[in-house]
Each structure stands twice: as C-alpha cells, then as structure tokens.
Amino acid sequence: MKNKYFVLTVLGLMAGFVLIGCNINREKKVEDAKENVKQANQDLKDAQAQYEKDWQQFKTDAESKITANEKSIDEFKAEIKTASKKFKAKYEREVVVLEQKNIELKKKISEYKYEGKDKWEEFKQAFNKDLDIVGNGLKEIFAKKD
Questions:
Q1: Which long-range contacts (CB under 8 A, 24 or more apart) does 81-90 make?
Q2: What is the rounded CA–CA span in Å between residue 61 and residue 83?
Q3: pLDDT of residue 15
Q4: Model confidence at 129: pLDDT above 90
Q5: Cα of 21 vs its chain's centroid, Å
Q6: Long-range contacts made by residues 64-68, C-beta under 8 angstroms, separation at least 24?
Q7: Can you tell me whether residue 126 is helix, strand or coil?
C-alpha cells in the first residue's frame, strides 16, 4: 500500500514538473517570438530608410540629367532657328522626338510609386536606359551638325 502511494506521489510530481517545464518553454517561445517581431520591424524600418535614401539620390540624379537634356534641346533649337532650311528639316524632327522622350521621362520619375525591391530595380534599369538613349541622341545630333 505504501508503494502504491509512493508511486502515485512520484508520478504526480513528475507530471507537475513536465507541466511546469512546458509552461516555461511556452513563455520562452512567446518571448522569442516578440523579440523576432521587434527585430523584423527594425529591419523593415532600416530597409525603408535605405530605399528612401536611394530613391532621393536616384531622383536627384535623374532630374539633373533631364534638366541638362532640356538645356541641350533648347540650345539646339536656338541653333536650328539660324540654320539653313536643309539643316532645319534634317534635325528638327529628331530634336522633337528626343524632347518628347525627355518629357515622358520627367513625367515617369514624378509619378513613380514604390512597389517592391524587384520592381524598383526594373524601373531604375529601364529609366536609366531611356535616359541614356535621350542623352546619347542629343550628343549624336551635336556631333552630326559639326
């Protein structure tokens, strides 16, 4: 009979220790999960700050290139006014096309909305390519006129 009570007591104590141990593990898991959420939120804030910094730098650079293109276009238009008809006919259409592309780029940069890192990288590449096309087109026109 004493063995029976002893065994029941030992089993009861073991069950209590197991339940206490599970509860401690649960609390630890909850604390770990809270810490992971805090870290994830901090990482997100850091990523957003980095994106904002990159965006502002990209936008500033792009706007300065667009402005430089506009100045080149205006200079070329002024030269076209004093040039011969043959020269006007040859280059006026090219300048108008490049001017339109430059206007589209200006609109594109002002209307851009962030949609994720992959889309941002695609936008930057496509925008830089288009910006280079306009810039190179203007350089080619200036090289041809000489």
A1: 87/145
A2: 33
A3: 67
A4: yes
A5: 47
A6: 65/131, 65/135, 66/102, 66/105, 66/106, 66/109, 66/131, 68/135
A7: helix
10 Å Cβ neighbour count for 136? 11
Residue 88: which of 99, 80, 97 has the closest Cα?
Answer: 80
Q: Which residues contact 91 (CB under 8 A, 6 or more apart)?
A: 76, 80, 141, 144, 145
Contact between 64 and 93 under an 8 Å Cβ cutoff? The reply is no
Question: Would you give the end-to-end CA distance of the chain in angstroms?
Answer: 115
**The pLDDT of residue 55:** 85
**pTM > 0.70:** no
Helix ranges (DSSP H) in 2-146: 2-81, 85-111, 117-145
Q: What is the mean pLDDT of residues 82-111?
A: 84
